[in-house]
Specification:
The chain is of the alpha+beta class and 77 residues long. It has 1 helix and 4 strands. It has one domain (2-65). The relative contact order is 0.12.
Length: 77
Amino acid sequence: MNRRLLSWVAAALVAGTTTYVFAQTRSPQPQVLSGGDLGFRVEGTDFRGRPTGTFVVRINGNWVEVGTSGGVHPATK
């Protein structure tokens, strides 16, 4: 029974460590892929190698993270 428990704990630690390492991959310097004043700041990749990051807008020459409003607005004609 103790051997089975030890194996389970070891497997959980390996899985957790692996997940943490892959989640922490970051590019050395954030890169903004942009078109004018709207961009996407690449901050790393996920476990499949897809870029992850944040949508940003350029305000007075500085890239600023985009926020969202929580409300629902009716469609205008």
